[in-house]
């Protein structure tokens, strides 16, 4: 009997074991199909070819978003497409014998701050380098190049000698005591410069990053201009690295406006762009072997912004790890892997159902970090996520792992699209936060030029237009306003600058985000 019982028991055990294995296999198959599955044998997605069909929603939004750079232009306008804008600040720089008339006003006032302006140029150039084919397919590449060059022309003029960079045009106190159109302003516009004795490594390095990135954008169309940009970028990086210091310590008044919390992130960011632009191993060694462990904050994801460039550097350098290079040493590769690992930690924090997902979101699903200019972090995060997902697709990388769960490039792309869709009106307010897009968008943008009729003679004190309950007489096309509160609400009032003021640096990453979503295409293995 014992032998018979044993044989029967073994038979049932085998049947039970097979059933468990079948059930387990089925469970893993299901999990593989869902975002966050613990099965980690996802198949790589096919690499897209040239740009495909245009998604009209994102294409239309891209065309609107790019117009804000025209709204913000300073100087003698060329081919002006904004009927209520005209020439302004034509004598900027005259007291130093320079022409600093170009560039862009940063937000709803008329100061030109080099720091956020340069960041705008860097991310706009990055957007063109990654998604220029998509922009071209959507017939929006030329406006992007025009906006970029308007800023880089200013940066060239603002760097008259190796160790001098003009970082501000205008007096914020005087400017903020006025509410007037830029075309009619008459206040003094003093210049602020950084130099050996009054350093500003944060601003100088950001300008270097912008010019290095832009040099690659213009390399095929204007070699001479590209070379000029690269020369300025290299000299500015040397200046920033040699004479170290924060611009807001050299000029404490800057702390009220763009108070950078450090400069080493800009040094790493600039060196990364210079490596891409030159192929010079010195720059790669700088960001990996020499300074990576000390300054890169590996393993500590943060939020990409005009102040903190680390997440951008991590994604940008992960590109080298994805696509590889025979000239990179083992020690440099180790550093690049640390950048990529940290970039993945950033991405894992963004995917909504990831075990590492940040809780810093609105009920409507928007990334939300701070009340002032709340859309900044959502837009920047979505841009980085989209770029990273395209690196994965283009190298047939199937998945990222987030604390044991696995996510495909599609999952990451879906997050990026969710942030873009929220901005364009898929939100509890049913409001497009991109002015000029859709049927419902903010009417009282906190913006001097947009709020005052073009023929009004206000002098400096046109504050009646700031406090007017009426919609702006001029539409600030393409302005991405500050955005909602954490409860997804928005108060459309010109006096509510926290929510209704727009900025050029938000528009830089928004253009990249929309360009990446407008159609599918693989990204280039190299920028040059």
TrEMBL record:
GO terms for biological process: cellulose catabolic process. The active site is at 446. Its EC number is 3.2.1.4. It catalyses: Endohydrolysis of (1->4)-beta-D-glucosidic linkages in cellulose, lichenin and cereal beta-D-glucans. One of its GO terms (molecular function) is cellulase activity. Keywords: Carbohydrate metabolism, Cellulose degradation, Glycosidase, Hydrolase, Membrane, Polysaccharide degradation, Transmembrane, Transmembrane helix. It comes from the Eukaryota. PROSITE patterns: GH9_2 (PS00592). The chain crosses the membrane at residues 12-31. The keyword Transmembrane applies. Residues 58-514 form the Glycoside hydrolase family domain. SUPFAM superfamilies: Six-hairpin glycosidases. Belongs to the glycosyl hydrolase 9 (cellulase E) family. This is Endoglucanase. It comes from Panicum miliaceum (Proso millet). The lineage of its organism: Eukaryota, Viridiplantae, Streptophyta, Embryophyta, Tracheophyta.
């Amino acid at each position: 009997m014992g032998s018979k019982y044993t044989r029967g028991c073994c038979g049932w055990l085998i049947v039970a074991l097979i059933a468990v294995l079948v059930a387990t296999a089925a469970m893993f198959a299901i999990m593989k199909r869902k975002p966050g599955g613990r099965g980690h044998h996802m198949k790589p997605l096919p690499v897209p070819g040239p740009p495909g069909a245009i998604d009209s929603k994102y294409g239309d939004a891209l065309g609107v978003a790019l117009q804000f750079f025209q709204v913000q232009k300073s100087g003698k306008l060329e081919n002006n497409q904004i009927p209520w804008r005209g020439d302004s600040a034509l004598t900027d720089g005259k007291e130093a014998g320079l022409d600093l008339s170009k560039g862009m006003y940063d937000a709803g006032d008329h100061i030109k701050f080099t720091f956020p302006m340069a960041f705008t140029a860097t991310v706009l150039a990055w957007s063109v380098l990654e998604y220029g084919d998509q922009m071209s397919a959507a017939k929006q590449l030329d406006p992007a190049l025009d906006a970029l060059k308007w800023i880089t022309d200013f940066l060239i003029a603002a760097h008259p000698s190796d160790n001098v960079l003009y970082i501000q045009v205008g007096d914020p106190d005087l400017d903020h005591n006025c509410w007037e159109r830029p075309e009619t302003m008459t206040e003094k516009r003093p210049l602020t410069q950084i130099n050996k004795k009054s350093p500003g490594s944060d601003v100088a390095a950001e300008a270097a990053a912008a010019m290095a990135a832009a040099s690659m954008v213009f390399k095929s169309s204007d070699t001479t201009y590209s070379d000029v940009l690269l020369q300025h970028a290299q000299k500015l990086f040397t200046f920033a690295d040699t004479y170290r210091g924060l611009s807001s310590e050299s000029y404490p008044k800057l702390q009220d406006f763009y108070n950078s919390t450090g400069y080493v992130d800009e040094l790493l960011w600039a060196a990364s762009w210079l490596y891409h632009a030159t192929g010079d191993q010195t720059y790669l060694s700088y960001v990996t072997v020499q300074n990576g462990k000390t300054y890169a904050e590996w393993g500590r994801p943060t939020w990409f912004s005009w102040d903190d460039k680390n997440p951008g550097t991590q994604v940008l350098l992960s590109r080298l790890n994805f696509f590889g290079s025979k000239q990179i040493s083992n020690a440099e590769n180790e550093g690049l892997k640390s950048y990529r690992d940290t970039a993945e930690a950033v991405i894992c924090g963004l995917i909504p159902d990831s075990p590492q997902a940040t809780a810093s979101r609105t009920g409507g699903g928007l990334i939300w970090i701070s009340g002032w200019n709340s859309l900044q972090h959502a837009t920047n995060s979505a841009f980085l996520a989209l770029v990273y997902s395209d690196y994965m697709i283009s190298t047939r990388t199937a998945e990222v792992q987030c604390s044991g769960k696995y996510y495909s490039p599609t999952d990451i792309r879906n997050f990026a699209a969710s942030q873009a869709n929220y901005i364009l009106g898929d939100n509890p307010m049913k409001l497009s936060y991109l002015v000029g897009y859709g049927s419902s968008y903010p009417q009282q943008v906190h913006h001097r030029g947009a709020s005052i009729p073009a023929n009004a003679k206000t002098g400096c004190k046109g504050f009646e237009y700031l406090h007017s309950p009426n919609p702006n007489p001029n539409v600030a096309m393409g302005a991405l306003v500050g955005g909602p509160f954490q409860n997804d609400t928005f108060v459309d009032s010109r006096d509510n600058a926290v929510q209704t003021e727009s900025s050029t640096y938000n528009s830089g990453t928004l253009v990249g985000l929309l360009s990446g979503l407008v159609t599918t295409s693989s990204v280039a293995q190299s920028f040059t």
